[in-house]
Amino acid sequence: MDLALSVEQEAVRKLAEDFVAREVAPHVVAWDRAENVDRSIVKKLGGLGFLGLTVPEEYGGSGGDHLSYCLVTEELGRGDSSVRGIVSVSLGLVAKTIASWGSEEQKRQWLPRLTSGEAIGCFGLTEPGTGSDAGNLATRAVRDGGDYVVNGTKTFITNGTWADVVLLFARTNDSPGHRGVSAFLVPADTPGLTRRTIHGKLGLRGQATAELILEDVRIPASCLLGPEGKGFSIAMSALAKGRMSVAAGCVGIARAALDAAVRYAGEREQFGKTIARHQLVQELLSDIAVDVDAARLLTWRVADLIDRGQDFATAASKAKLYASEAAVRCANNALQVFGGYGYIDEYPVGKLLRDARVMTLYEGTSQIQKLIIGRALTGVSAF
Ligand code: FAD
């Protein structure tokens, strides 16, 4: 694996770093307090090509390799995980899945709009009764002539209230032993689809997380994405790549924690010297620094495998597991360096800890990542 960035990769990383400094950092505290990122950020992300990374240029994407995608995601995650999540879902889970599985018509209909930020996508898999056990989902799509009629409820859907298109997973076949889940591209303004914002989140407060209620939602059969019955495989392949993006976002959180803690340790004085001169504070800082490097290397390894066309799913689970747990540890260690000030939202580390916590839960909890890794090691599925 070549760890040296190319000129193009360094340029796109710098573009993202500058974007965060200019368009994100000044607003982070206000967006978090208001529980609302300014939606105009989506067009700005699209304008710089961040919503089209790795999507072919013929569909409005900005091309690029997966390491570039990691670099941008890390910078966005360093700035604000709520903003990073917009990209990870609309590009990573939705646009890239359309690029892989969509018909020519679906690609032309959605990709230019999604990659430019004119439209935004959400990924509707989780339901109130099925989270980790997503294959058991209860939402149903019943064929009726040239249409499907969909009924069910999705919950915890990132970008849910903002989305123009829902990548929706619904059961189309109930016969025993048949997984029978299919994927659909549902325009969010389809009659019968209502959305409710979920308030009171511990972190990612700026993000539009929603419950989606589908009551007799009638969609033409042309909304089916990929073959009928392939939906579960489509969801799992999207999430495998998505885990790389979550891991890169976690590296961003860990780096933000490190930068803030080092800066503060050099300024704050106790016992007649800066706290940076106390050995136990240096231990906290060095633990964060090692986690940053380890999480980043595991994440880049996934990008490298994808760009070489090799199997990456287990590596993605390892990276997501390690980076998400590391992000929580790093933010918590940074908060310790800040002492009581870390507990106040004028200082950045409390938000980093709140935002980090969900990373061990979504796109497969830490326990689910361990079961994926365990299955690869033993050949036995222990779900
Ligand atoms: P459960 O599956 O009920 O798990 C509860 C606990 O049991 C966990 O500790 C879990 O690890 C453990 N557990 C479950 N099964 C096993 C097992 N076999 N062995 C060992 N332990 C097990 N979903 C979407 O579809 N789209 C989104 O955009 C999206 N965004 C989200 C945003 C936020 C802020 C949050 C909080 C969630 C989001 N999710 C989204 C949902 C997320 O993916 C689920 O919350 C996650 O998969 C876990 O499901 P659950 O919450 O139902 O927990």
TrEMBL record:
Its cofactor is FAD. Pfam families: Acyl-CoA_dh_1 (PF00441), Acyl-CoA_dh_M (PF02770), Acyl-CoA_dh_N (PF02771). InterPro entries: Acyl-CoA_DH_CS, Acyl-CoA_Oxase/DH_mid-dom, Acyl-CoA_Oxase/DH_mid-dom_sf, AcylCo_DH-like_C, AcylCo_DH/oxidase_C, AcylCoA_DH/ox_N, AcylCoA_DH/ox_N_sf, AcylCoA_DH/oxidase_NM_dom_sf. Gene3D superfamilies: Acyl-CoA dehydrogenase/oxidase, N-terminal domain, Butyryl-CoA Dehydrogenase, subunit A, domain 2, Butyryl-CoA Dehydrogenase, subunit A, domain 3. This is Acyl-CoA dehydrogenase. It comes from the Bacteria. Residues 122-217 form the Acyl-CoA oxidase/dehydrogenase middle domain. Residues 8-118 form the Acyl-CoA dehydrogenase/oxidase N-terminal domain. Transmembrane segments: none annotated. The keyword Chloroplast does not apply. Residues 229-377 form the Acyl-CoA dehydrogenase/oxidase C-terminal domain. Belongs to the acyl-CoA dehydrogenase family.
